[in-house]
Amino acid sequence: MCDTAPDPMRPVCYQGIGTYVSGVTARDPREAARLCSLGSEQWRPWCFVGVVKNFIDVTARPDDGVAFCRSLAAPDIASRCWKAVGEEAAVLYPAVEKREEVCRGAESTMVDACRSGAGLSRVRPPELPSG
After folding, report:
1. What is the spatial distance between Cα 95 and Cα 28, in angstroms, rounded to a whole number?
2. Does 19 map to a domain?
3. Measured at the alpha carbon of residue 82, what is the angle toward residues 99 and 74, in degrees to the nearest 5?
4. Does 126 fall in a domain?
5. In the chain, how many domains are there?
């Protein structure tokens, strides 16, 4: 159904599906990744965003999201996932130092995506998909 939504709403729709996937799989990372991978290739990164944000929202622990993002191999999906971890860190931690600490948990190629999401950098990493 998300693929039939107007273009500007597709990322939002996929993110909502990801939130649902997180719940219906009882936050099982492998099953959540499998289900999100069924979506349209162009929009599926946002399903993973919904999953990782829900993982963190439920526990208020960025480590749960960090573990999930580390398991993702596709650069476009992983970078969007890490940006979402940074966004969640910005909500959880007003202190810049705590957000930096969360983003240091990213693989070296994904630190910039996390920092961008956490409001620590205005540079948009080139591997982030648009939308």
Report:
1. 30
2. yes
3. 160
4. no
5. 1
Half-sphere exposure of 68 (CA within 13 A, CB side): 33
pTM as predicted: 0.92
CB count within 10 Å of CB 129 equals: 16
Domain ranges, residue 72 = 2-117
**Contacts of 2-11 spanning 24+ positions with Cβ under 8 A:** 2/39, 2/40, 2/43, 3/40, 3/43, 10/43, 10/46, 10/131, 11/43, 11/46, 11/131
Which amino acid would we find at residue 62? P
Q: Is the residue at 23 inside a domain? A: yes
* 16-48 pLDDT tens trace: 999 999 999 999 999 999 999 999 999 999 999
